[in-house]
Specification:
The protein has 413 residues and is of the alpha+beta class. The protein is built from ten helices and 14 strands. Helix content is 25%, strand content 19%. Strands 1, 2, 3, 4, 7, 10, 11, 12, 13 and 14 form a ten-stranded mixed β-sheet that branches. A two-stranded antiparallel sheet has the order 5-6. A two-stranded antiparallel sheet has the order 8-9. The termini are far apart.
Length: 413
């Protein structure tokens, strides 16, 4: 009988942008299946299957022998950051991570609402935003701290009458009844950075919903579209956005069954103190149209103009954005927070970037495997993975030692 130590347990990987959580697992599985590190595990699994009853073998859907993997909470394709992964027997412990607290850094872009509550959706409505300041957005955050009731987005994997909500949305059908609010808790919520319009890379999507889609969304979301008077107040770049939309653009948002954009533009202002450098943990600012949306063109300055402060920016300035940091409980939708915050400050809002910086004891920059390391040779990623799994086992052992003995009866006082 082999005494080779099997590589099993729980670790975390830094998920990159634009791929699903399920695809991360497939990529990991591809690397693990052909590695020397997991060869003993695959051989043990082969032996175990031989010893299975005939009935068990017949019920097995996947006949291939592959390293068993699962994740402890989905991240949307546009999100990056901590994705907890269970390997082998570690998959049985993933349920515990679904109920733990998570820390996120998110960017909300004001002035528009989409059907998905983020930049990957279709624009449903636009609203004024020139009245927004760091101070009134910070004041509005008080409403979202502590225990709150939150309504999940229509594009979510929650089920209603046996059907996922995003399936109703994709089919253009109304949901059978109102989406119910759910109790969640925001343990902390802070505005980390205020980004004036024209001083950041975030833009609204180009694709607008058609009239029928807007009617369905309005009945579901109760979204109040900007009135004609409000639209007249919008800067020209807001009024004309979408006038030259490309026809037939394919929807790019993907919602996973398990669970539940940045674009470079030329700043309208030049001074560094006016345009703070956007910073976000674990985020990568790629140039070009990485998420399939195109930025509205910034103003071309043909003559020198006097420098202006943020308060005196021209009325054609693009919408402001805000970077938020939050620690929340299970079931919290950051997209819903961005949507609700936009309405609460007298405008609209969409999520334009999301990074999960921590989940349970796993934190970016401390004990999370970098996804790019998997593209390197096994002698690079294997020692890192083994060390992470060893650290996790030691931590689990300490927790078991510190836990009170269940069989121990407390003495009466």
């Amino acid at each position: 009988m082999s005494t080779t130590k099997l590589v099993e347990g729980v670790f975390a990987v830094n998920k990159p942008k634009s791929i699903s959580s399920a695809q991360v697992l497939r990529d990991l599985q591809h690397s693990f299946n052909r590695s020397a590190l997991f060869a003993p595990w695959l051989e043990a699994e082969k032996t175990r299957r031989v010893e299975e009853s005939k009935r068990q073998r017949q019920r097995r859907r996947d006949k291939r022998i592959q390293v068993k993997l699962g994740h402890g909470g989905t991240l949307d394709p546009m999100a990056t950051g901590v994705l907890i992964v269970g390997v082998g027997k570690g998959t049985k412990l993933l349920q515990d991570f679904l109920t733990c607290t998570k820390t996120y850094e998110a960017t909300v872009l004001f002035g528009a609402a989409t059907d998905t509550y983020d930049v990957l959706g279709k624009v449903l409505s636009k609203a004024p935003y020139t009245h927004l300041t760091r101070e009134n957005v910070e004041a509005a955050l008080n409403k979202f701290r502590g225990p709150i009731n939150q309504k999940p987005p229509l594009y979510s994997a929650l089920r209603m009458d046996g059907k996922r909500l995003y399936e109703y949305a994709r089919e253009g059908k109304e949901i059978p009844r109102e989406i119910q609010e759910r109790p969640v808790t925001t343990e902390s919520l802070e505005l980390r950075q205020w980004l004036p319009g024209g001083c950041h890379p975030y833009t609204w999507p180009d694709e607008e919903a058609d009239e029928e889609e807007k009617l369905v969304a309005d009945r579901v979301l109760h979204l109040e579209a900007a009135s004609d008077n409000e639209k007249d107040k919008l800067p020209s770049t807001q009024n004309t956005l979408g006038a030259d939309l490309a026809q037939g653009t394919k929807r790019r948002r993907e919602v996973e069954d398990e669970d539940d954009a940045e674009i470079g533009i030329t700043p309208a202002c030049k001074r560094q103190e006016i345009c703070p450098t956007p910073t976000m943990s674990g985020a990568r600012h790629d140039s070009g149209s990485s998420n399939g949306v195109t930025a509205p063109a910034a103003r071309t300055q043909t003559t020198a103009e006097p420098q202006t402060s943020p308060e005196k920016l021209p009325s054609t300035v693009q919408p402001p954005a805000a970077r938020l940091s939050m620690t929340v409980t299970s079931g919290f939708y950051v997209r819903s927070l961005c949507h609700d915050l936009g309405q609460d400050v007298g405008s609209l809002g969409i999520m334009s970037e999301l990074v999960r910086t921590r989940q349970a004891d796993f934190e970016l920059g401390r004990n999370v495997l970098e996804y790019n390391d998997l593209c390197k040779t096994e002698d690079v990623w294997a020692p890192l993975l083994v060390q992470m799994l060893d650290d996790w086992r030691e931590k689990m052992a300490r927790k078991e030692e510190d836990a009170p003995d269940r069989d121990e009866t407390p003495e009466p006082s």
